Amino acid sequence: MGSIKVAVDAGHGYNTAGKRSPAFIKTVTHTYDGKKITVPAGSHFREHVANAGVANYLADYLNRLGFDVLRTGFDDDNGTNDTTDMSINKRQSLIRGYGCQYSMSCHFNAYTGEWNSANGIEALYDVSEKRVGDSKALAVAIQKRIQPVYGQKNRGAKTAKGLGMCNATGMGCVASVLMEYAFMDNRFEAENYFCNPESWYRYAVATAEGFVDYLTGGKPEKELTQAEATKKELTQAEATKKQALWLQIMLNKTLDAKLVVDGIWGTKTKKAVLQLYKKYDFGEANGNTVSLAAIKRLAR
Ligand SMILES: [Zn+2]
Q1: 219-239: pLDDT as tens digits
Q2: 90 shares a domain with 136
């Protein structure tokens, strides 16, 4: 069994008509992580570049956590080389074909296309019973993490109608969501978040954290033990599998352990636990238990 498969999508093509900010009123520059973005006064910033900015960070981060990530709608170059708009059908068939269990599509919002006062952040899931799968729970978990990043207006986890990238069932996914991180036609959000690589990074990490919360139920409250996963009856084994998933994801993050994220606490996971205990001096270890102190370190 391999790692959980996840699709990360960047919406639209570089040249897709209309998918850009109004003309900037002043020149804005942001520098972060070796990237310098300048939007000169009078020019428009393209949605695809910002979407791909977030999507790149999100795909890289999920990779580091151990997920098997499929990228759709963007290349590795922050989207600036991507001149064609990949059709929704193409995106969907790639996601279905890869066998992704989850998909997340990164977008920025627009209201009128002229500067206006609409603002805020939201996570969308499909309104239709036939298409939604488990997407609502994923949208709620992601919204809970992305909204506090800048304290933007909380537009909530919301239903949407007919968006191709929210059609979980159609793509063979358990859950599919679409995030609208900020309004590109709101002057404050456009200048501060939309064209800012630091926001792209922060939105991406928060999105990944929401996804991990959804999958695992979040940081365990008690010491973790491997034995429970095999001995207890089904419901408890399910709960323990979620904890084992959390453990594997956090061992990957903390130690770069490169564990397959499958919720099976086997030999490799045990070895990584031993490595964790050794590295941070948590004392005697057998790889079958993870103390609260170790959980706290992993959760950092
Ligand atoms: Zn969009």
Answers
A1: 888 888 876 555 544 455 566
A2: yes
Distance 105 CA to ligand 1 centre (A): 9
Element (H, E) at 26: none
How confident is the model over 157-213, as pLDDT tens digits?
A: 999 999 999 999 999 999 999 999 999 999 999 999 999 999 999 999 999 999 999
Residues 262 and 200 in one domain: no
Whole-number Å distance, alpha carbon 93 to ligand 1 midpoint, is: 19
Both tokens of residue 183? 């309004």
Q: Are residues 146 and 238 in the same domain?
A: no
How close is the Cα of 47 to the center of ligand 1, in Å?
7
Whether 166 and 144 share a structural domain: yes
Residue 134 CA, ligand 1 centroid: distance in Å: 22
Distance 179 CA to ligand 1 centre (A): 9
**Using CA atoms, how far apart are residues 144 and 235, in angstroms rounded to an integer?**
26
pTM of the model: 0.94
Which residue do the tokens 């791909």 mark? 52
What DSSP string describes 93-140? HHHHHHT-SEEEEEEEE-SSSSS-S---EEEEEES-HHHHTTHHHHHH
Asked if 204 and 224 sit in the same domain, the reply is no
Report d(CA 101, CA 8) in Å as an integer.
Answer: 11
- Spacing, Cα 42 to ligand 1 middle (Å): 22
